[in-house]
Design goal:
The chain has eleven helices and twelve strands. By secondary structure, the protein is of the alpha/beta class. Helix 1 packs antiparallel against helix 7 and helix 7 packs across helix 11. Bound molecules: pyridoxal-5'-phosphate (PLP). This is Aminotransferase, class V.
Length: about 375
């Protein structure tokens, strides 16, 4: 089997699983207890927090463990508005965000805030002039993802933070799930940042929220006060420690992985270049990350391509895993202005730190074979 759906999730490193088991086995105390076991577990939790903080180059007390990036996004968005609601009632979100961000904004809209959607250009990069036109003295929240999960555009986060200098009331949240370690970002430029372990070879069910200032975000759930009251509930220390391990192991490979992913993307784009009907929606360009390629066969359904590859032992995805079971036009591709046929016929191929050149070569070979056998004629007959 060849797994090329790493934006959906990655395989945990063995060392990460070992850490998870070891901590559960030997350090199962409650980090909030003052007994010996509790204290040891709490030390381990602090060490994990410290490690994450040092890799992200932020202060230790700005790191909060959560259950996933969806939760991190919800806390940052709903919690910052709760803090700022007396200062304004407008909120801005880019049109290509993950549902965990978009749906949080829609909930805020239902609660009475005025929601403005930020446009992207044909490459899927947010339109900074449009942002300038949307910002008002009433704006209290803006969310723009670091790297898009459908086609991989890198967003101009630092330029946005420059624009926001004239709007100090705005809380600037960045969903860093697909961007962490892949694209350098100075977190002092943002107010909050969300990541999820299972996207960098960690386990599912643990995420991090970075908050520049804890004071500026209210907790949205209530309980025993863990994680400085931001996220009550007994902390899953084994998961936190394994997230820190995954982040460290991934960081060690960053530079070699970057080179590898560029080579893989180039191989695919060159391999498909003589086939006019194969459309690349995320070209080789500084605007896009190399680990994600969105490819279309217009007039063919993305699902049919995914299934054909599946039968040959290759796993890719239609758009994002969250929406791939229900068939509707992918919103992020739609707002880029891509044609309906192009969107319907799109698949996403995404590499991990572990993807090999041979896997990519096989993917290219099999894709072209399936294209020639199953899809070329259908496309050319115009059906
Ligand atoms: N944000 C982005 C950009 C994602 O790609 C995903 C998952 O696919 C999430 C948020 C949600 O992450 P989690 O699965 O940790 O809730």
């Amino acid at each position: 089997m060849i797994y090329l759906d790493n934006c959906a999730t990655t395989k945990p490193y063995k060392e990460v699983l070992d850490t998870f088991v070891e901590v559960n086995n030997s350090y199962f105390g409650n980090a909030a207890s003052i007994n010996k076991f509790g204290k040891t577990t709490n030390k381990l939790l602090s060490a994990a927090r410290g490690q994450v903080a040092s890799i992200l180059q932020v202060a230790e007390d700005s790191i909060f463990f959560t259950s996933c990036a969806t939760e991190s996004n919800n806390i940052a968005l709903l919690g910052s508005v709760e803090h700022k609601k007396d200062f304004g009632n407008r909120i801005i979100v880019s049109k290509i965000e993950h549902p965990s961000v978009l749906e949080s904004f829609r909930e805020l809209e239902r609660r009475g805030f005025i929601l403005d959607y930020l446009n992207v250009d044909e490459d899927g990069v947010v339109d900074l002039n449009h942002l300038k036109s949307l910002l008002t003295k009433e704006t209290i929240l803006l969310s723009v993802m670091q790297i898009n999960n459908v086609f991989g555009t890198i967003q101009p986060i630092e330029e946005i933070s420059e624009i926001l200098k004239d709007y100090p009331k705005v809380h600037f949240h960045v969903d860093g799930v697909q961007g962490v370690l892949k694209d350098k970002l100075d977190l002092s430029k943002v107010d909050s940042y969300a990541i999820s372990a299972h996207k960098f070879h960690g386990i599912k069910g643990v995420g991090v929220l970075y908050l520049k200032s804890r004071r500026t975000v209210h907790n949205i759930t209530f309980g025993g006060g863990q994680e400085d009251g931001l996220r009550s509930g007994t902390v899953n220390v084994a998961a936190a420690a394994s997230l820190a391990k995954a982040l460290r192991l991934s960081q060690e490979k960053v530079e070699t992985v970057k080179v590898k992913h560029k080579e893989f993307k180039t191989m695919i784009i060159e391999g498909f270049s003589k086939y006019n009907h194969i459309v690349i929606n995320s070209p080789l360009s500084e605007k896009y990350i190399d680990s994600i390629i969105n490819i279309s066969l217009p007039k063919i359904k993305g699902e049919a391509i995914v299934n054909a590859l599946n039968e040959r032992g290759i796993m890719v995805s239609t758009t994002s895993a969250c929406s791939s079971k229900t068939f509707h036009l992918n919103e992020a591709l739609f707002v880029r202005g891509l044609s309906r046929e192009n969107i319907e016929g799109s698949i996403r191929v995404s590499f991990s730190n572990e993807t090999t050149k041979q896997e990519v070569e096989t993917f290219i070979e099999v894709f072209i074979d399936e294209y020639n056998k199953k899809f070329k004629e259908v496309i050319e007959s115009g059906i």
